[in-house]
Design a protein that fits this description.
Elements: E1 10-19, E2 24-32, H1 37-42, E3 47-52, E4 57-61, E5 65-70
Antiparallel strand pairs: 1-2, 1-5, 2-3, 3-4
């Protein structure tokens, strides 16, 4: 029988993402409630989920990101 590890809930954080081609996305990233956006960007996974201001889901390649700026 496999042991289930407790999962940390995810929270939405409003942010602006700037890409290497100069484009910008405004919307939300999803991070663990006990983490920061920096932790998301430094994680092993090459992509992260982002929902733009119109509700469209994007899988963003971290190698194409210049900056992620949270909105306070």
């Amino acid at each position: 029988m496999a042991v289930r590890m407790p999962q940390v809930p995810k929270v939405r954080v409003r942010a602006e993402v700037t890409m290497t081609d100069g484009s910008h996305f405004d919307g939300h990233v999803f991070i663990e409630a006990t983490s920061r956006i920096q932790d998301l960007l430094n994680a092993e996974e090459p992509f992260f989920a982002f929902v733009d201001s119109e509700g469209a889901l994007h899988l963003i390649n971290k190698m194409s990101v210049v900056q992620v700026r949270p909105h306070d």
